[in-house]
């Protein structure tokens, strides 16, 4: 399964990678992310973040970044499916969540620790909520 995922990731062309980066950067603005949060979510340093923001089409979007972008955009899609209003679609990541996985933390608290696994877990939780499996 891991090999299939890597092959799929590798097959994405540069145009699609840059489009994903532009979309994710816009999403992080809607989420009102601080510079520190953006760096953690994207797994990059300050100078790289600034380059991405000023010249996203010239960025080298490697597989680690592409995986992060994929989770961020899938989290956004799950939120768009779950909520019909803009406030919740963009505000949910800042709302304290008392379901077992979050234990009172916000999704942003979890995601902004810099680990890809945290993005995966938040996505998985939202995906299960979207499927009606979360109480």
Q: Globular, elongated, flat, extended or rod-shaped: what is the shape? A: globular
Strand fraction: under 5%
Order of helices and strands: HHHHHHHH
Q: How confident is the prediction overall: mean pLDDT? A: 88
Provide the structure class.
Answer: mainly alpha
| Number of extended strands | 0
**C-alpha termini separation:** 30 Å
Layout of helices and strands:
Layout: H1 2-10, H2 14-30, H3 35-42, H4 46-54, H5 63-82, H6 86-91, H7 107-111, H8 116-130
Helix pairs in contact: 2-5, 5-8
Kindly describe this structure.
66% of the residues lie in helices and 0% in strands. It has eight helices and no strands. It has helices at 2-10, 14-30, 35-42, 46-54, 63-82, 86-91, 107-111, 116-130. α2 packs across α5 and α5 (63-82) runs parallel beside α8 (116-130). The model is unreliable at 1-9 (pLDDT under 50).
